[in-house]
Amino acid sequence: MRIKFLSVILSFLLMSIAISSCLDSDDNYEYSSDATIRAFGIDTIGKGIYYKFTIDQLKREIYNVDSLPVGSDTIIDKILIDTLSVTGWVTSGLNDTLFNTSDSVDLREPIKLKVHAADGVTVREYTIKVNVHKQDPDSLIWREMAALPASPVSGKQKSVILKGELFVYTSSTTAYRSSLSTPASLQWSLINVELPEGAKLNSIVSFNDQLFITTTSGEAFYSDNGISWTQMDMQGMQMVTFLGGIPEDKIIGNKNILTGIFTKEGANYFCAKDTEEATWRKGEEVIPAGFPLEDIYSTVFTNASGIKQTVIVGNTETTVEETVPWFTMGGPTTMDGLTWTGMSTPTDFSCPAMKNPSIMYYGGLFYMMGGDFNIIRTSRVGIEWNEAATKFRYPTEIKVTPGEKEDDKDTIEYISLFKDKGDYSLAIDTKHYIWIVWNSDGSVWRGRQNKLGFK
């Protein structure tokens, strides 16, 4: 009995020692070594816009992917950091003073913040950089480039892009070529071309890394290099002009389709073919009245259904009251190039009739140039047309007329440098540069909307 009683007492003693030991360990805290910024944000910009910031934990950099608008320097020179999530505390400056988020900071230049972990040992330094656009993203900027060595002798010329080069055809035997690998400068070289007899320069189209041209006698030719040309088998068709191409579209199963117009017994019809095949498909219905037949310009856009459509404008044989873009149409599974519809607008928002119109789908909108080159027209879907925004205009000179009275405001006019300059040709390269070459003097201009050049 005594032995059992002693064992019980010993057990109680051991438990007491264990409990006492556990109680003593409450004073041994383990502090966190976490010294990371988990969330960061600044006060809203402009009309309550909140910009998201990315935190690169490996490089310890914090930055905004979407740059702030031009002119934001005058806002971020004194702005609050309204979100700063850390476990420990933050210091800044040469003296590592405690950072207070209730004080405004100057973020025009990168700043550094040090995050101190709760353990008092671990420290991480972050660089905060606020990106601001140096250029207005919506502005169309023009620059005059090196002119052609000689003006077009025929009074007509055609500009096209082929495999990263700008070709300007000035006659049936000559053309000028420059690489676009360095678009800031042009180095023109004269080349002797082998255009077929009666070739219509204004009919040249570029599609799928080839050029296509028609002649006054109804023949058609193609070129892989822009210099030598090979006659196409038109299967008895007399070609009027090429319209452009419908690019491959996996959604509806289309391959690259070349489209054009041929004439038969005095009437014009559509024709089209897959560029990998030899057989042409012929339209059965006469093309609609008012459809453009010369100086064709085409562009491609993706519609709301995700299907690619080709849109063209050009000069017509009949007098028109508006410039109408024509769209390729098709069924749910094909776009055959034989069906086109005109987007005529019976409202005040139609595009006025203009000579030598060109169209482009550019930066998410349609734009129409041409006529007297005073106003650029724009449309969201190619139906209602309006004057383009003031930032999207031809190169201009500004004319200021002082007010007649002391309190009158000055009158400011923007006069297009292209106004009434005459015939031209236009091409757009893969870097979104718009190239315009003028017939009258061979001058060359390059334009691009700033945002289409941003990385």
Automatic annotation (TrEMBL):
Q: Which domain of life is it from?
A: Bacteria
- The answer to whether keyword Transport applies is no
The name on file for this protein is: DUF5018 domain-containing protein
DUF6242 domain boundaries: 47-130, 136-455
Task: Give the signal peptide as a residue range, or say none if absent.
Answer: 1-20
What keywords does the record list, in alphabetical order? Signal
Q: Name one Pfam family in it.
A: DUF6242
